[in-house]
Amino acid sequence: MTVAIGNPMIRMPSQAKNGEIIEVRSLIMHPMTTGLQKDKAGKIIPAHFIQTVTAEFDGKLFMTIDWSIAISTNPYLAYKMRAQKSGTLKMTWKDNQEQSWTATAQLTVA
Amino acid sequence: MAGDVPGWPAKPFEDKTLSSAMMDSVGKTSVAPSPKVKLTAPTIAENGGAVPVTVEIDFPMTADDYIDAVYLFVDHNPSPLVSKYQFTPESGQAYFQERIKMAKTDHIRVIAKSSKGVLMASTPKEVKVTIGGCGG
Amino acid sequence: FFGPGAIASAWGADGDPYEISDYGNVTLLHMTDSHAQLLPVWWREPDTNIGLGSARDQPPHLCGKWMLEYYGIPMKTKDAHAFSCLDYTDLAHKYGKVGGYAHIHSLVNRFRQARPNKTLLLDGGDTWQGSATSLWTKGEDMVGAQNLLGVDDFVGHWEFTYGQERVQDLIKNKLKANFLAQNVFSSTWNELVFKPYVIHEISGRKIAVIGQAFPFTPIANPRYLTPDWVFSIHPGHMQKMVDECRQTHKADAVVVLSHNGADVDMKMASQVQGIDIILGGHTHDIMGPKPFRVGKTIIINTSTNGKVLARFDLDVGKGKINGFKFYYLPVFSNLIKADPKMAAYVDSVRTPFKTKLAEPIAVTESLLYRRDNFNGTFDQLLCNALMDEMDCEAAFSPGFRWGYCKLPGETITMEDVMGQTAITYPQVTVNEYTGAEIKNIMEQVADNIFNKDPYYQQGGDMMRVGNIQYTFNPDALIYHRISNMHIGGKPVSSSSKKKYKMAGWAPVVAPVEGKAVWDVFAHWLKDKKTVRVDKLELPRLTRNMENNHGIAEPKTYGL
Ligand SMILES: [Mn+2]
Ligand SMILES: [Mn+2]
């Protein structure tokens, strides 16, 4: 069975005023299996899930998330960020099978 | 090939009961609710595999005092701790939306910790997982 | 059935019931839950619609004489016939059928002509489902009727059971009305799927109409039909939409076109500030002759099957409504000339199916209806048919609130069979359940109807059961409402080994193979040739239900 995996995406305003708090929304394809379910043959499907998500702006880490097996398939995540200067937002997702994905988005602060 | 991501707090995530997961996360098994911690979730789950939750904490995020960590629990999930968010003043607001798995009717609860160590909880929110099949 | 004399006497007593004097600068016309009934139908109000907690003895939980007393309507009048179940068959012969799109069209045109450029027609949903032709045309016959009628705005519930692609196709390519929903989001990016509201400019004023889809669609109906859409109530988002209409768009009046159901609307009105009027549907309630208020919000619910057209004449000033007049108008088909254009349209969509629709199946000797909290005579027949045809000792049938009536002596045609069963997931199922599993299912469904918190109420009726006897306390908590359960007159076994073979239909969890319920029902009815229901299978209700104004005939429940 092949399951779509990866393809991280970020959606957020490309411009903001200095000091404005903007919403960042993101999506990534991932099976997020729990390790508690069996396949049709009765064999345990191993746990395969994203454990951490980080967000950094121009290289400075400002948010770290730890997730359990209880996060849904293809995780959607929204959070906030204070716009203080123009630069690059970088998000990194890492799973328990040593895979990782990154996505970036540009912000211009007027 | 499988291995935990460095820094991922395995202990509280592997706890099987709410009280041990709370103990290993915030060092307490009971935290007083505060109206500052807002948890929004549907009254009835449309899909127990993807219950949308929104958490919003009404607390200034200054360098001096801010929300440092937010924990979300589902009381009777196989591992009750669902997520841990660590914020900084650059976040602007301690806020997130995520979708979570719930096996049956259960309570979701959130605990926030400020950088000065003050703990605040949400009012627990019951989400019902039910059968349907009727309608007007 | 009714002679011309009956019509004259109905009309003559009160004059022309649809003559309305001019008032204000904006008119809202509201119809809802027509359930695709293009032609006039018989529609009996329930004799049981129990209200609990703060909803007890309040509209819309009033039945029979309680309903008439509350609204001050004299017995046996045509309004009494429209708003209560009392003397249903006798008064039906006297006053005739209700609704029908050609009759509604005449009424709407008359009001539009009297109030040119001042009138909006709002359709509260459940319009595309409930008839054979709507099912066979996948909703398209109704879209044509809505376009001809000139519906301005529209919201949805059963519409979604045609599947998300079909819904989008009809909305984008066929429907002229605005399809509105502030509470349907994509399951990927959490974005609105439909326009949340529309601002109409009338008489120089701005009228905002915000749409609210049925919040529990993926629970009450199969979720696999709308896999990419997430629903729910979203009072916070509703508040945001109201504020946006008032502040950004400078709306002078804010109207919510809702498919929440009456009790959910009342709770939402207590949480959201700034809504002037909620035009409600879904629960098919009579909640009209006098509008109900929660805080500053006026709430109505406009019945079903084309029975009622509601009309608000508003005096809208700058930023607020200065005054209003309200009319809750039963659509008596005999009192209104059919609009020829709509009549021709209805005829044209029915023509290809005429033979199939008219096929006689059986004759009924007693009144057949569905709507009631616990059982209806039509559902009793359906349960009996399922048990006989599928060789089962008991049956479940969903507590749907649509499905029109047949009078004693009438022939049940294939169209009438479809009128009780026309859904996109009609399969008949047979399952083996333990006694505990049966009770668990019934308890869960009961909690979706009788939970005291309206946000847990899905707006249907209790599931119908064939050959299951039980005592019921609506006021208890989940898993404590049902006691003294028997199957076939014998106490239900508590053994996990004893399984009961049960028939049912309308599976919601996943698509299944199976015979269509209309074929099973029609086969059984043809075999019987004539049918009658003399005694309904009803639960015994507990003593605390004595004098509940939602029960018109307490004796039938052992009270
Ligand atoms: Mn309906
Ligand atoms: Mn409905």
From TrEMBL, chain A:
<feature type="domain" description="Sulphur oxidation protein SoxZ">
    <location>
        <begin position="10"/>
        <end position="105"/>
    </location>
</feature>
<dbReference type="InterPro" id="IPR014880">
    <property type="entry name" value="SoxZ_dom"/>
</dbReference>
<dbReference type="InterPro" id="IPR013783">
    <property type="entry name" value="Ig-like_fold"/>
</dbReference>
<dbReference type="InterPro" id="IPR030995">
    <property type="entry name" value="SoxZ"/>
</dbReference>
<dbReference type="InterPro" id="IPR014756">
    <property type="entry name" value="Ig_E-set"/>
</dbReference>
<protein>
    <submittedName>
        <fullName>Thiosulfate oxidation carrier complex protein SoxZ</fullName>
    </submittedName>
</protein>
<dbReference type="Pfam" id="PF08770">
    <property type="entry name" value="SoxZ"/>
</dbReference>
